[in-house]
Amino acid sequence: MTGANARMNAGARAERYVARLMRRRGFTILARNFRSKAGEIDLIAQQGELLVVMEVRYRRSDEWGKPKDTVTAGKQAHIIRCAQDYLRRHPELKRARVRFDIAGVSRRGLFLTCDWVENAFHADLSRGTRRW
User: Fold this and answer.
1) 9 neighbors 1 (Cβ within 8 angstroms)
2) pTM for this prediction
């Protein structure tokens, strides 16, 4: 397996791991790898009126910093615009409270660990126009 394929495989494994954690916490996964012109969202999940937009970051170790610290302001802007596209396509979610979380997944020996940061960043949501 090439380096790029191994990284993609590890990232997909991390996303599956986080999806399982979310389901255990009572979330329903609405979308995985949602794509729009603005970019991609790893996971979108719902629990009651709460809609969580989850960015999953995987690192083999924390040697070069925490995975969650790699979500730059530019990446956040892409995620926000992509979430706006998702909400436009799903008007039934117009009353949902939207939260942006980051899951930093790392390997500890044989096990994966997750540093789940709730409200990792915010977007000003105008209910009338769906502007962020």
Assistant:
1) yes
2) 0.85
Domains of the chain: 3-121 (3.40.1350.10)
Nearest to residue 104, comparing CAs of 64, 129, 73, 69?
Answer: 69
Q: What is the 8-class DSSP label of residue 64? A: T
Cβ-contact 100, 79 below 8 angstroms: yes
Tens of pLDDT, residue by residue over 75-111, are 999 999 999 999 999 999 988 999 999 999 988 778 8
> pLDDT, tens digit, for every residue of 14-28?
999 999 999 999 999
Output the CA–CA distances (angstroms, integers) from residue 104 to 41, 62, 87, 99, 101, in the order listed. 15, 10, 25, 16, 10
